[in-house]
């Protein structure tokens, strides 16, 4: 009888521990929602469709064969990022992400993204910092949404 009770307790402890260890991380999804479900971002994306330079950039993007199906969440580092840059510059401007000279303020953007993770606690901060080390801190051609997606993807891969 004692052996079976001990075995049951051991099995319960094993299952309880494994469910904690295998618990999915929520940090990446909460940071993703804070960035991509942000109403200010949605409003800026919509408003810049009417901006002359933004509209021209989107039209050029649609006419460029290699850019069909372009995903704003993926910084490709190619001609498509360059074609859409005026539109994304408009979006960045509406969000307050531009410096006085018109260049993108990557430090400001990444600090805002990090604040979303830090607000969730030290585990999320560590996941974000891991993502930042993996993805780097430079943002080219105003592709800040691509940098966000890279950070979020890396957060899900955090080994700690």
UniProtKB/TrEMBL annotation:
Q: Which UniProt keywords apply?
A: Signal
Q: Where is the signal peptide?
A: 1-18
Gene Ontology MF terms: odorant binding
Tree of life domain: Eukaryota
Query: What name has this protein been given in UniProt?
Result: Uncharacterized protein LOC108671467
Q: Which organism is it from?
A: Hyalella azteca (Amphipod)
